[in-house]
Amino acid sequence: MASHPVHLPQDFLNGIHVVLSHTSHPGNIGATARAMKTMGLSRLTLVNPKRFPDNEATARAAGAEDILTQARVCVSLDEALTETVFAVAVSARHRSLGPEPMPVRRAVSEILEQTGNGDVALVFGNETSGLSNAEVQRCQRSVFIPANPDYSSLNLGSAVQLLCYELRLAAFNGCPPVVTKAVPFASPVAANDDVERFYAHLERVMIATGFLDPQQPKRLLPKLRRLFGRAKLENDEINILRGVLDAVEKAIDKTSEPKS
To answer: Which one of 25, 77, 111, 160 is at 20 to 30 Å from 121 when CA atoms are compared?
Structure first.
């Protein structure tokens, strides 16, 4: 029995290229490259851009210049879609011509699935007029971002970012890997014997300060156990608490020393 190739999440994203048609402002091309790279997409196609290459595009790419360098430039949408098996028009306008529009989150599963058959294109139109009817009709699906109906205008780079985000989320089944360079704040959970030594230390200090009467303890210790149990104490926290208790004991010793 023949085995089917296993597609990793990044494989799905590698099968998608973003197509910008007749872009007016080079800054939007750079912003698109940046939006793509942050979400793991790398293939950019430009259809008859007004200005490209351009310093403004490079500046707005902010570290995603490699996507601009590798961008494919075409004279028409037909050329851009030559080897594409599935094209998706991204448009805020609902039209009676062309494929029925659907919200992007409902469409992403099919978009990713189609990458198994070949290249998939996300097609974005000009900043001012969007996609023409003829361009939409060259696509198999039409999607929209469900923005505020009273003000649905989105910057081109922002629209690309939202589409790429939804695709990344779906490709990783809702749990994309998170990489952080921050120093971890948490420490390992304290072992049971360390926690018990802390309780013994706490009881000793409470008795020494007169806060706890060992002859009439009532429910003080069980309540404190419940309190710290909810906190799920970590090693660092145990060390801090015992350090506080050590400081209290030293202060008690000093006050009890005979004065010369």
So the answer is: 25
